[in-house]
Design brief:
The longest helix has 13 residues. The chain is globular, with a radius of gyration of 14 Å. Helix 4 runs antiparallel to helix 5. It has a two-stranded antiparallel sheet. The two termini are 19 Å apart. With 106 residues, the chain is mainly alpha-helical. It has 5 helices and 2 strands; from the N terminus they run ααββααα.
Amino acid sequence: MWETDPKIFSARYRVTDRAALHFRCTAEHLEARCDGGRDTEENVVAACLYCNKNRHKRKRPQDAVSYKNLVRSRMEQGRWHSVTLTHCTAPRGCAKFFWRKATGQW
């Protein structure tokens, strides 16, 4: 994920500047603010823009643990991001950061 400069990210992972936009670091609320979730350390985690948007676009948005299981299953099948990163040092990509706080482990 990147926070300030998508060009550095796109060069490092060999993706287009447009594709890099999917990996922008965002604040994801495990319990949505519209459902009473607060802006607390326990409720906010880092997630790429792609993960953050897609979790909430579902017809029936899932809770954090259920969504983690969906992401994990699709990642194992190579079907999560439409963009493949090369030279990625974190084997589970942004989902690793997103769910570490939600569950405390993988």
